[in-house]
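Lab notebook, design round three. We kept the backbone fixed and only want residue identities now. Task for the bench partner: fill in a sequence for the structure below.
Input structure tokens:
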């Protein structure tokens, strides 16, 4: 879950030539990553290793909004992947559903309850408020450096 939160904070709404629906994120192009972290475009790795400390990285990451990422629709073909924003299916569905239920936001036994997709903004707020654990920040920072 923590890696999903980190990705959902760093990823933008760019979605295979479209824009993902509100409350969701999609792709993580290098330009978005550099912009979100306030780095120059010369080299992400060198900027992180020489200019941005792990503490600064955590602060910047904590200040970014979280939006649950979408699951890519299709494979290899840009034509199929471009449908990702339209299909609007959240990534890691089992984790998403478990987290909704664990937090009392959804009951899968209630057929008259809200659709899980409609609960994405509320779940985003909960996860954004909880923030990231130190171990997750370490993993993401080390992967980028």
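Proposed sequence:
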């Amino acid at each position: 879950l923590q890696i999903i939160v980190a990705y959902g904070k760093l990823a933008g709404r760019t979605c295979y030539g479209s824009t993902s629906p509100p409350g969701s994120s999609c792709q993580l192009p290098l330009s978005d990553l550099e912009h979100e972290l306030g780095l120059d475009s010369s080299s992400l790795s060198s900027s992180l290793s020489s200019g941005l400390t792990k503490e600064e990285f955590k602060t910047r990451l904590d200040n970014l909004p979280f939006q649950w990422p979408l699951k890519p629709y299709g494979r290899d073909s840009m034509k199929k992947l471009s449908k990702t924003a339209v299909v609007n299916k959240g990534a890691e569905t089992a984790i998403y559903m478990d987290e909704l239920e664990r937090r009392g936001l959804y009951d899968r036994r209630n057929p008259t309850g809200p659709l899980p997709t409609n609960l994405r903004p509320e779940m985003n707020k909960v996860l954004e408020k909880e923030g990231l654990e130190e171990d997750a920040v370490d993993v993401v920072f080390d992967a980028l450096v």
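Keep this in mind before ordering anything: Residues 5 and 141 are 14 Å apart (CA to CA).
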